[in-house]
Amino acid sequence: MTERRIFDPGLQPERTELAWRRTALAIGVASLLALRILPATTPRPELAPVLLLPGILGLAFAVVLWACAGARHRRVTRALLDDRPDRLPGAGLLLLLTAFVIACGLVAAVVIALPRLI
Known about the structure:
By secondary structure, the chain is an all-alpha fold. It is 69% helix and 0% strand. Residues 8-79 form the DUF202 domain.
């Protein structure tokens, strides 16, 4: 059995991965709630299928974020073990999450304004 070298006694990359996974889990739970609540609260039942879309997209994003968190952790661990800081991942995952949160805000604004528009 090979012994795995620990480069960080505080296990910073592991804690960061867990934080990304908690974020993905929170997005997944919120998306499931959106799937349950949004179609039930629409004043026009014919719009219910359209209101399923934010929840479905949120669940898909949660799965992608979960997978990206694992891949990011592997890249960070490999870069640190090989002492190659130039191979550390950038802020792409954070940028993706930021774009998702902004999109969620826009969807929320539309959902709130929807009864007034119809």
